[in-house]
Design brief:
Elements lengths: L3 E4 L3 E4 L4 E5 L12 H9 L7 E7 L7 E7 L4 E3 L7
Antiparallel strand pairs: 1-2, 3-4, 4-5, 5-6
Length: 86
Amino acid sequence: MSFTVTCPICGKRDLYEFRFGGEERGPRPDEAGLTPESWCDWLHLRTNRGGPQLEWWYHHQGCGTWFSIWRDTLTNREVRPLEEES
């Protein structure tokens, strides 16, 4: 089965239409008291965990929308976060 990504505008599409934007990092750190080392860590270091993680994707060959999805890095499949399951 091919790797698909679900765009919120266009629906489920093949991976090759998208560009990976990286894992979601949270808000940008406050500049007050920010050291060069802590800025570098926030900018470049990733958790690279195995399992579900929230990621940014860009629909390059489609609507041009940036959006985030949950993807299981072990299976390369889009997953729903636990808090949405009911």
